[in-house]
Amino acid sequence: MSEATDQPIKPTQPLEAGTRVRVTQQIQHKKWNATIEGRIVRYEQSKTGSWYAHAKDDKLWLDRLVLEKDDGEIVVCNLDPYTHIEAVG
């Protein structure tokens, strides 16, 4: 797990549709981990309803990864500095 920073997410590999990945997220800055595996549907930056001064459109923007699990369930992961993404075979 990486240390938290104020830097944007910089995945170690391209987040391309169809790539199978394992996403591990640390919950609430503690040692609670959640892991999800699936194929990438899309990677996007999208704005929230939250206001954030000096940001594009005065909104808070989040990096989001949309995955499709093996059972067809669609999961949206909000990426943060505690998120670890790895390609899996």
Mean pLDDT: 80
The assigned structural class equals: mainly beta
**What coarse outline follows from CA principal-axis ratios?**
globular
Give, in order, the helices and strands. EEEEE
Query: How many domains?
Result: 1
> How much helix, percentage-wise, in residues?
under 10%
Our count of helices gives 0
User: From the alpha-carbon coordinates, what is the Rg to the nearest angstrom?
Assistant: 14 Å
Number of strands: 5
State the major sheet: 5 strands, antiparallel
Uncertain runs are 1-8
> Which percent range describes the beta-strand content?
over 45%
For the termini, the CA-CA separation is: 20 Å
Strand order of the largest sheet: 4-3-2-1-5
Short account of what is shown:
The protein is an all-beta fold and 89 residues long. The protein has no helices and 5 strands.
Describe this structure in words.
The protein has 89 residues and is an all-beta fold. It has one domain. It is 0% helix and 54% strand. It has strands at 20-27, 32-51, 59-68, 74-79, 84-87. The chain has a five-stranded antiparallel sheet with strand order 4-3-2-1-5, with no helix packed on it. β1 and β2 (32-51) form a beta hairpin. The chain is globular. The model is unreliable at 1-8 (pLDDT under 50).
